[in-house]
Amino acid sequence: MKITLPFHINKVGAGFPSPATDYVEDDVDLNAHLIKNIPSTFIIRVQGKSMNSVGIHDGDLLVVDKSLNPKNFSTVIANINDELVVKTFIKEKGLSFLTSGSKKIEDKINLTENPEICIWGIVTYTIHAL
Amino acid sequence: MLYSKNKIALVDCNSFYVSCERLFNPSIIKKPVIVLSSNDGCVISRSTEAKALGIRMGEPYFKVKELVKKNNVKTFSSNYALYGDISRRVMRTLKQFSPQMEIYSIDEAFLNLSSIKDEDLLEHGNKIREIVLKWTGIPTSIGIANTKTLSKAANYIAKKEKSGVINFINSKKIDYLLTKIKINDVWGVGKQLTKFYIKNGINTAYELKNIENSWIKKNTNVLGSRTAMELKGIACVFLEPHQEKRRSCCVSRSFGIKVTKLDELNEAITTHCLNAAEKIRLDNQVVKKITVFIRTSPFQKDKNYYANSKDIDLPVSTNDSIELVKHALDALKNIYKKGYRYQKTGIIFSSLKNVDTYNKNLFSKINNNEKRENLMKAIDLTNVKYGRHSLSIAQADFKKKWNIKKQHSSKIDTTCFNFLPIVRTA
């Protein structure tokens, strides 16, 4: 999955060639930008709408890095009840929680009380078609 | 001693195919799981839970079907697109721990750890396991020793004891542990040698280690004495970091349903030939000799058995799909007989050579045809971009009635946008 786009510094025009031409130009490499750690990064498709408020929509592609650890407000993939789901990771008063975009209190899962839940990976980018 | 500097780790993925299936499907963690060979023929990977039920490696699926049903064993068809990608990730992760690495199989690699202090080896091994598990989700076992054969033995013990890492270097337990390894489980000891050793009272790795060199030299071949030396801690088999290119390439499949018509066999052979041609082009190789073979099922009691093959020596080495398919179909026509229900067909390319080393034949139409070369490149590129067989030649069937059975495939492909794993929001 290699995607590259040509990246031109100077505009195309008639006349004297730009002296900047010499400093051009590598293709923009989206892979290099989106994927910091190749062996641990997976592209995963999203299904569902409950994370819309965080900017994750149905059908979006998530760039997920398994090698990272969650920080406060990280978007994460977690294994909850034998299923991989997208959640927001929150730290509060020394405790860790997972929430969905809804902000309802009953959606908050206390990770200390549910040790069987584990974080599968950290979402680093979402790719959303407009 | 000179050889004590040599420190080798064998990293082996635990139930690799099962672990790959579990990566995106947590519901099958801690449950019995098996993966079947292509065509759903035999069991080729088992979870610990499935092993505990008595399902054996290589067992035909129909034999364990009842056991599978009774115990709700999750069953998967092999999904090599997924396993291949996960394997590359594991190997890439391992590579950081030692620039000197030999990829031994899809789920095993030897690492040179000679730069690590003896007393840090165990900790280093645990670190490797931890990182591979976190980055790729794949659990591994590691054996560390002074030789490749001993590292294999250490790994065998690590798997058996589920201890993660076993380090033989400076260990006083080596001899004791080697008594636990049956002679046929020693790396490099095949069926024939096993028979011979058992006949001579050598039943374990420990017993082979203690056999006199002169006896081994007199009674076995070079490979036999190498294995014995390696068990004694003297390195004879070295890491091969640069994989040699293949010397032959075989693509064959069993049919999902029995096939009788020449047309259908033509389609199959064309597809196999294109696959093989793509593989050798990828490695920058050309082929000089092709073999086409067909056979009926040897297990059909009431039917006559028929098997035949045909070699074709090509006038000029080539990797041109169109040229190769033409020859392959000629060969097939030669050996095809009406009235049989064929179960398997395939093609073998042998005498492979590198493109740059083969003698360009100035008078050949094939080699001078730059257009043809560009066409092959275009086909390969298109197929990489849009998926296998997007672009093919007319003979290859796109419906593929005969194609392999894959009733239980997880259909996940981490390298293809159309088959990415899916997560829900909740």
Helix content of chain A: under 10%
Rg of chain B, please? 24 Å
How are the strands of the largest sheet of chain A arranged? 3-4-9-5-6-7-8
Helices of chain B, by number, come to 15
Question: Could you tell me how far the N terminus lies from the C terminus of chain B, measured between alpha carbons in angstroms?
Answer: 61 Å
Strand-pairing-aware structural class of chain A: mainly beta
Percent of residues in beta strands of chain B: 15-25%
Give the strand line-up of the largest sheet of chain B.
5-6-1-7-8
Characterize the biggest β-sheet of chain B: 5 strands, mixed
What pattern of helices and strands is seen along the backbone of chain A? EEHEEEEEEE
How many distinct folded domains of chain B?
3
From the helix content, strand content and strand pairing of chain B, which structural class follows? alpha+beta
Features:
A: 130 residues, mainly beta, 9 strands, B: 426 residues, alpha+beta, Alpha-Beta Plaits, DNA polymerase, domain 1, Dna Ligase, domain 1, five-stranded mixed beta sheet, five-stranded antiparallel beta sheet
What report would you give on this structure?
The complex is a heterodimer of chains A (130) and B (426). Chain A has 130 residues and is mostly beta strands. Chain A is built from one helix and nine strands; from the N terminus they run ββαβββββββ. Chain A has one helix at 30-34, and strands at residues 4-5, 28-29, 41-47, 61-65, 75-80, 83-92, 95-99, 109-110, 118-127. In chain A, strands 3-4-9-5-6-7-8 form a seven-stranded antiparallel sheet, with no helix packed on it. In chain A, strands 1-2 form a two-stranded antiparallel ribbon. In chain A, a hairpin with a 2-residue loop joins strand 5 and strand 6 (83-92). The two termini of chain A are 21 Å apart. With 426 residues, chain B is an alpha+beta fold. Chain B has three domains: 8-167, Alpha-Beta Plaits (2-Layer Sandwich); 174-231, Orthogonal Bundle (DNA polymerase, domain 1); 249-396, DNA polymerase, Y-family, little finger domain (Dna Ligase, domain 1), CATH 3.30.1490.100. Chain B has helices at residues 16-23, 48-52, 61-70, 80-95, 121-136, 148-161, 174-178, 191-199, 205-209, 213-219, 222-231, 262-282, 321-335, 365-368, 370-386; strands spanning 8-13, 33-36, 43-46, 74-77, 101-105, 108-112, 140-145, 165-167, 249-259, 285-296, 307-318, 342-350, 353-354, 422-425. In chain B, the strands form three sheets. Chain B has a five-stranded mixed sheet with strand order 5-6-1-7-8. In chain B, strands 9, 10, 11, 12 and 13 form a five-stranded antiparallel sheet that branches. In chain B, strands 3-2-4 form a three-stranded mixed sheet. In chain B, strand 2 and strand 3 (43-46) form a beta hairpin. In chain B, helix 4 packs antiparallel against helix 5 (121-136) and helix 12 (262-282) packs antiparallel against helix 13. The longest helix of chain B has 21 residues, at 262-282. The radius of gyration of chain B is 24 Å and the shape is globular. The N and C termini of chain B lie far apart (61 Å). Chain A binds chain B through residues 1, 37-40, 42-51, 56, 61-62, 66-67, 77, 79-80, 82-87, 100-101, 120, and chain B through 24, 26-27, 29, 88-90, 92-93, 131, 134-137, 414-415, 417, 420-426.
